[in-house]
Specification:
Blueprint (H helix, E strand, L loop, with lengths): L2 H12 L2 H37 L10 H46 L4 H47 L6
Protein name: DUF2721 domain-containing protein
Keywords: Membrane, Transmembrane, Transmembrane helix
Organism: Adhaeribacter swui
Amino acid sequence: MNLNEALTILSAMITPAVLIVASGSLILTTSQRLSRSVERVRNLSDQLRKLMMHPGESTFLEDENEIVIELIQYASRRSRLLQQALTTLYITLGMYVAISITIGILEFSGLQHTWVLTLLTIFGAGFLFYASLLLIIESQIAFRAVNYEMNTVLDRVKRYKKPRLS
C-alpha cells in the first residue's frame, strides 16, 4: 500500500467524523434538555405535594392543583420524548462509528462489500432523522407548555388585578 492509498483510506474513515461530532453535539444538548425537564417534573411534583398536603392554604388560587397537574403532564411528555431522542442519537453515533470502522476493515481486507457501507449510512441517516423528528415534537410540547403557563399567569393578573383609584 502506497502513501496515496493510505491517505485515501484515512480520509474516507475520517469523513464520518463530521456526523459523529454533530451527533455528539446533539447528544450533549439533548442530555441538558432532559436534565432540565426531569428537574422541572420534580419541582412541579413537590409543588403539587405541598398543595395537596395543605389544601386550605391555596384558597387564593383555587385552580392551582389543575394547573400544576397540566404542567407536570407537559414536562413528563417532554422527558419521555427526550429519552427516546437520546437513545436514538446514541444509536446514530454508533452507526457513524461503525461506518468509519467498516471503511477501514473493507479497505484493509480488500473486500468490495460496499453495500455494507450503504446500509450503515442509510440506517445512520434514518436514525438521525428520527431523532430530529422527536426533538421537533418535544420542542412543540415545550412551546405549548410555556404558552399555557404564560397564559395562566396573564389570566391571573387580569383576574386579581385591583382596580386603580383615580
